[in-house]
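Team,

Forwarding the record for the chain on the shared tracking sheet. I've put the sequence and predicted structure together so nobody has to dig through attachments.
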Amino acid sequence: MNEENEEFKKKMEELGEHFGGLVSDETLRLLASYSLGHVSEINIDDAVNFRGKVTVKGSVLKIYGVKDFSSSKGDGTVGSILLKLMEYPNEDAIVRAVFWNDAARVVEKLSEGDTVKLRGHVRKRDENVEISVNQSSDVEIIEKKIREISGAYIGKIEDKEVTRAAILSDDGVHKFIAESNTAEKLKKLRTGSSIKVTIMGAGKELNAIDIEEIEEEFKIEFTPVSKLAPLKISNLRGRVSGFGKLKSFKNRTLAEIYLSDETDRVKLILWDDNISIYRKADIGDTIEVYNGYPKVGWDGELEVHCGWICIIMLRTA
């Protein structure tokens, strides 16, 4: 921090007047540096006692996702991550970073292992240090983590703008975007092919850098409808046996389809882009649901919700 610039000098004077000579010049310099967003020499635990924004650099350890909420003050969006700090004197310190509204959408672009620089307000919550970020401009993605996912190829997903496809790995189903040469490689694959995809990105924006077939075998397994358990993400396969309503709920559109297999029948609740299946499917068509979310509905019956993390493949009769 350049202590000769006018902004720094002005902040030193303001803090000096505020504390009335009760703190040393060294402390004033640290406080001034902190209030202007520079905390390379301030312990993150001490930063909770000061006002203003702090700038930290760290590696993303865990992503908790993004969700919308409603409160007495209005509607909003929030997302959060766990961050391992990288710079002195805070190396290896673990903090939770919470992103609000505009800033929350940046979380969807992050992957575990990414290096980021954040600017926000520090506070303690349940004895843990937390940094709140309110603007997307206060988030800088310094380095993206590249990772590999191996699994069974599910197929291409219809999208008017880009080529999307999906892979089923040991830890679930992943959608990714394939462009130019990777999109060409998809044409040679069949459903169930064992592949390894080199991925960059996170959330809805997984981009395939490379795709290759591998010898390791991956089996696509489906849960029988009669074995579905509430709140346990599942894959299921069956035939369309009926159609329910197409309706709006909290400014979103949903559709109802009934799926039957040899064990039982269940209602699917289709959200967002998955509604297209409602318009295209016919009685008797085979559908495969990946990442379905079973839960008990208002009528006490089990239903499977199919949101943006869910993939539905239509295999026409």
